[in-house]
Prior knowledge:
- Strand 6 (149-154) and strand 7 form a beta hairpin.
- The chain has two domains: 11-179, Rossmann fold; 185-391, Dehydroquinate synthase-like - alpha domain (Dehydroquinate synthase-like, alpha domain).
- The chain is of the alpha/beta class.
- The two termini are 36 Å apart.
- The radius of gyration is 20 Å and the shape is globular.
- The protein has a six-stranded parallel sheet with strand order 1-8-5-4-2-3, sandwiched between helices. A two-stranded antiparallel sheet has the order 6-7.
- Helices cover 48% and strands 11% of the residues.
- InterPro entries: ADH_Fe/GldA, ADH_Fe_C, ADH_Fe_CS, BDH-like.
- Residues 9-177 form the Alcohol dehydrogenase iron-type/glycerol dehydrogenase GldA domain.
- GO terms for molecular function: alcohol dehydrogenase (NADP+) activity; butanol dehydrogenase (NAD+) activity; metal ion binding; methylglyoxal reductase (NADPH) (acetol producing) activity.
- Residues 189-388 form the Fe-containing alcohol dehydrogenase-like C-terminal domain.
- Pfam families: ADH_Fe_C, Fe-ADH.
Amino acid sequence: MKNFEFRNPTKIIFGKGTEKEVGKECARYAKKVLLHYGAGSVIRSGLLDKVKKSLEEAQVEYVELGGVKPNPRISLVREAIELCKKEEVGFILAVGGGSVIDSAKAAAMGIKYDGDVWDLYAKKAEPVGAVGVGVVLTIPAAGSESSNSSVLSNEEEGLKRSCDSDDIYPKFSILNPEITYTMPRYQIACGCVDIMAHIMERYFTQTPNNGVSDRMAEALLKNMIHFAPKALAEPENYDYRAEIMWNGTLAHNNLINCGRQADWASHPIEHELSAEYDMAHGGGLAIIYPAFMKYVYRQRLPQFIRFATEVWGVEYDRDDAEATAYEGIVRLEAFFRSLGLPTRLEDAGIEADDAKLHFLAKRCDRNELGKVGHFVELETEDVEAIYHLAKKEG
């Protein structure tokens, strides 16, 4: 187990009707806020009106900026920054899922940064603070409601990149599972895969001797395997939606990251797909994660055997350890398909030739060592091979 420091300052307000408390919470931080949201569902469901009413009752002024899209765009973030400066906004309230929250976090940093906020995502500069961010969560998925990370797309450059800063932990996050009832089934399914991917990015590690985090990760994965199908089958079952919503927060609040080096290979590999084809992040992960596993499992066989036996209940085959490990990957892929998600590029309608896959692999974001990931450090040709595995059966 590695040395670590753990801090998560986000106040979680969980349960039925908790969105009514948003005005009181915002009033702790500012007299005027930016109300940031997407489109459609928050308006149709009446949630936005409830949030506005709560702000008005708490005597918190607000200005609005909607229109956040999946894979949030730098162009709207720049607009948000200018609006906040013009209106002297001191706090940003994100009403939505991961895309809205990440957009709000980017704007919060951009207000404090004397330059173009994309510099922070392109690793040309470090964040220098942020105004406060609050959240009313509408979909369990990204875990951004209690994380110190944000992912942003630059539509002009065709890039999707992340930025981490402790300044962008939300001050509070309101999680009411009832709010998720009206979300489309496909979005919830994508969210479930995103949650599982966040756990697996931390579970697969070269760091030995961390049984606490190993077992927490396994428990969270098994909980998703049990409740995700139920939550999709009965969209207005509060208990099922509560399970996956809280699971999503725990998957990405860095608790299971303590004392270990996380991988973070599959996320940047998928980011290239969603940046290029504007697909749902969870749908891309359903394609990439099994392909990644098939490419690396022989190099880290003991961990994949444990994943198969402890998470999926695969019986260990003493005569063929590799078959045991591979069966865990097969079951993961089948589970993603059972949720109605693509597990091949062609399933998602993506026709990418060899030149395109090489381009995406070469463009893929690197870590501080110039590699993709830490569990198995991948070069461009490795990433390209993973894209090819994602393209075909086998």
